[in-house]
Every structure is written in structure tokens, then in C-alpha cells.
Amino acid sequence: MNYSEQKEWKEIQTYLPEKLHFTEEYHPVEEWWKWKEHNVHLDCFRNPNAKAKVILLHGVGTNGRQMSMILGGPLFKEGFETIAIDMPTYGVTQVKNRSRVIYDDWVDLACDYIDYELQKDNRPIFLYGLSAGGMETYHVAAKNKKVKGIIGMTFLDQRNQQVRDETARNIVMSRIGIPMASVSAKIGLGGLSMKMSLASKMSTLCNNEEVMQIFYRDQTSAANSASMRFLDSYGNYQPVMEPENFDVCPILLTQPDKDRWTPLHLSTPFLDKIKKVDVQIVPLENGGHYPIERPALDQMVIAIVGFINKIMS
């Protein structure tokens, strides 16, 4: 299956500003990349003349095509090359065994893909991540150490109890569900799965209720399920480098100001610990967690272009 056969993203697209709609002339090219036992889907806006590449990482309620719509395409129009990765169990990536996938695989895959791109040419690489993808950009940069900058829609350290409490569906899931996922993984029940909408505050993914109903039908994004093994690894991931020691590259947080899932106060405790590199925070006016609103979408692109160009200058 590829995205030409999938309807949900096309329905979501109708709620975006018309200039973001894909056409016969303006659309990502679908590529495949073999990683371990998985056939990984890449949504690409290739540009061999671009001075930099931006790799887009989705979260636990989105997929690569949804990244391409709001950011991959717009950044391509600004002269960059963009690649949105469908992490294993999300999007249309072909997975050997869903129940064996853990969050560490997402980090390792992204690190290996960066190396793959750098083997082709030495153009600078930046990372962008939405939702859980924001913190993933940090985890990847800390491990790979070869990116020039990271941009997140949020930076959530799931080891922080307040972050767990406010991003889980409810306090029971936060205080009992995540620890039970750890227990399940340890006693051989790691393959059991749970819908991410039961584990998390998925209802706040998008501020438009009609779009949320589309998301809820999309098993490649918000309607996806995750194994106890994945939830355990995601909630307890230990970065290679703690924030106090992070010195790899500058960081930009593009924070939607109407984000009901991950408001600013959940990212600042982590970012405040980072002292060795520049950290910039840009609010996105009227934007939800997955922003479909203006001027948030325009402000996001402007902020990211400015961030990259400053580093490249």
C-alpha cells in the first residue's frame, strides 16, 4: 500500500489552506528504504540543488504524509529538500513484526537514515518533529551527533511525571497504565497492544472536530495501536546525552499557542536544562497540536526557514 491508495490524508487536506493542497505538479514522491526487516516508506520532496535537507519525524498520532502536507511541501517551496519518514507501525511502512517494534527502533532508524543521506552527499541535515517526534529529534541528535539543528513542535520528557500525567488520557493511565506496560513487557506480555487513543490524550490532536473524526478513522496515524513493549520503551527511554550535557546543535521549539495536548509548560522544564547550545521558542498563533490553522502554519515555516538560514550563514 502507498498513499495514493489512502483516503484519510486527502480528506484532511481539504481543511488546509488551498496553497498547501497537493496537485499533479506539486506532491511528494514516494520512496522505499530497507532498514533491518522493515521496508520503510519515505515521503520525499527531492531537490538536488537545495543547500540543506530536513528530515521530518511524526508522533504517535500522525504519519509521514501528514508531515509532508503541513511542512514538507512548504519547506520544499522555500528551497529545501525534505524527507518524511513513516516509522515502523505507522504510515505505510511495511513491518516484519509489529509486536517487536520499540521506540528505540525509531531512534536507531532515524540515526541510520541520517548516515545513509550523508553517504550520498554532505549537505547539512536538520530534523523536525511533531508531538512525540519533537523529543525524538533530540534523542536522535544526541545519539547520531551529525545534524546541524533540531526543531520540535514539543519536547516531552516522558520520564517526568507531570508530562505523563498531562499527556496521558487520564491519571489512571498515567499512574497505572504506563507502569503496567513495563510490567507486561518484563513478564512476556509485551506483544499485547492498546489503541493509542486509549493511552493518550488523542482527542486533542487537532482543534477541528471534523478533522479529528478523520484522524480517528486513520489506522496509519491516530487510530493506530501500540504494543506494551513499545509503550514501555517510549515512556522510559534514556537519552544518550542528558540535556545538561547536550552540545550537538541549536534547538528551535515551534509552539502552537492553542495546543491542548502539549502546552508550552510541558516542554520548558526539559529545554531549561539545556545551556550549551542556543534554544529558541517561537509561538504559533491560533495553532493546535497538529496545526491546520493560519497564521500558525505560515509562522511555522517562517520560523524554521529563519532558523536554518541563520545556522547555514
Assign the structural class, choosing from mainly alpha, mainly beta, alpha/beta, alpha+beta, or little secondary structure: alpha/beta
SSE succession: HEEEHEHEHEHHEHHEHEHEH
The backbone outline, from C-alpha atoms, is: globular
Kindly estimate the percentage of residues that lie in beta strands according to DSSP: 15-25%
How would you state the average pLDDT, rounded?
Answer: 90
Q: What is the overall number of helices? A: 11
Tell me how many strands there are.
10
Regarding quaternary structure, how should these chains be classified? Answer: single chain
Poorly predicted sequence stretches spanning 5 or more consecutive residues: none
What share of the residues lie within helices?
25-40%
For the largest beta-sheet, the strand count, sense and barrel status come to: 8 strands, mixed
Radius of gyration: 18 Å
Distance N to C terminus? 41 Å
Query: What is the topology, as strand order, of the major beta sheet?
Result: 1-2-4-3-5-6-9-10
